[in-house]
Amino acid sequence: MKTILRTLSPIIFAVALVESYLRLTGTAIGALLSQYELYVFFILLLFLRYSWYVHLILHEGGHYLFGKLTGYQLLSFQVKKFVYNEKNKKITYIQSGPTVIAGQCLMSPPPKGSYAEKPFKLYLLGGVMMNGLTGIILYGCAYLLAPERGIILVIFSLVPLWMALSNSWPYGQNDGAIVSQASRSAEAKELLFYQLEIAALFEEGATFTELPDRYFLPLAEGRYLKTNLADFLYMAAYLKALGVLDFEGADRLLQSFAANRPVTRSAYWPIFVVESLFCDAVFGRKQAAKEKYAKIQKNLVLKQQWNTSKRVEAAYAFFVEVDMSRAKSLLKQAKQNLDGLAMPAEKEIEKRLTEWLQGYFVA
Question: Which residues cross the membrane (predicted)?
């Protein structure tokens, strides 16, 4: 039911917005349709489809603008698989790995002041405000034109207005949800800044194993587990454990994640499922690994994550299927994919684990 509502919501929103324009201008839809040839509507739909990229850039630009106004410093700017890094002033194309996010403007918070004093709302809601302002301008200007021209502006206002609405309404881990969660308590706000500081450390070249233990104390002490902001810490702690080949510790973290958080509603759910299969394979829990594998093959999102992790595929082939030839082939692909990873910290983990798996094939 929720999936159906998510699918229908933008359609209902678009129909309502167009209908309101027609009513306010006293225009009949039939009269407008008769003004254009059929091919014009196909062209409009094509432009509307690709206008999403323009508004995605504007959305991330809004984060940047309002972040700068409140003392934040740019770390990286991502649109789909293109990432601009402020430190080296280079644009990188992510060749491998899933595009988990459509875009991201990653900034480090102001260095001075306590967590309680640091601003965050304008930075996080900057994209929403930019999309909302763009949509309102387009929709408002439609009333300055004749209806047969104004309806075109109304149509092009749909994407930014929907982006503003869907990102501001707290759901999952969108901008509105993060602001809502971080505003609930000083502790939750602290988790938000932990995440931003860890991201800044990564941009400076730090690896997962070099992350200070203080960031993960809330997990060890069982604090702050009622917020989605804890999910990032779980996955970062998991990768830190893998970085030193502490598979028992990594496995315990995933089990704790599943016990304390609604994992299926987390943005990290696909990663969690695939990595938990990796742990099942390593520890010889073959039946559990096979059940997860069957689940992954039936789910498009999980399968996408699976297909981008050749290291996990290789572990499954070796420990569960006992297919040495396939495992060797997958490990070779895993090594080839290392250069396509955007984060050096992620590359370091994958390289370490790939070399560990290869150790089983050394005569």
Answer: 12-33, 39-58, 122-145, 151-169
- How far lies 337's CA from each of 30, 94, 206, 210, 346, in Å? 54, 10, 21, 23, 12
Supply the pLDDT for residue 342: 65
Residue 300, Cβ density class (10 Å: 0-12 exposed, 13-18 middle, ≥19 buried): exposed
Q: Side chain identity at 154, as an amino acid letter?
A: V
Q: Can you tell me the distance from the alpha carbon of 67 to that of 78, in angstroms, rounded to the nearest whole number? A: 15
181-215 burial, b at 16+ Cβ within 10 Å, e below that, comes to: bbeeeeebbbbbbbbbbbbbbbbeebbbbebeeeb
Can you give the pLDDT at residue 98? 46
Residue 66 has pLDDT above 50, yes or no: yes
Count how many Cα atoms sit within 13 Å of the Cα of residue 227 in the half-sphere of its side chain.
24
Residue with tokens 């016990």: 259
Q: Minimal CA–CA distance to 296: which of 278, 274, 319?
A: 274
SS (HEC) of 153-189: HHHHHHHHHHHHHHHHCCCCCCHHHHHHHHCCCHHHH
Report the C-alpha gap between 91 and 94 in whole angstroms: 10
Instruction: Encode pLDDT of 110-136 as tens digits.
Output: 988 889 899 999 999 999 999 999 999
- Max Cα distance, the chain (Å): 81
Strand-pairing partners, residue 128, are: none
- Residues 69 and 122: their CA atoms lie apart, in Å, by 9
pLDDT at 17: 93
Q: How many helices (H) and strands (E) in the chain? A: 16, 4
What amino acid occupies position 264? T
pLDDT tens digits, 129-173? 999 999 999 999 999 999 888 999 999 999 999 999 999 998 878
Phi, psi of 261 (to 5 degrees): -130, 150
Give CA–CA dist 356/334, Å, rounded.
12
In the three-class reduction of DSSP (H, G, I as helix; E, B as strand; rest coil), residue 83 is classed as strand
Domain positions in the chain are 2-168, 186-361
H/E stretch holding 84 reads strand 82-85
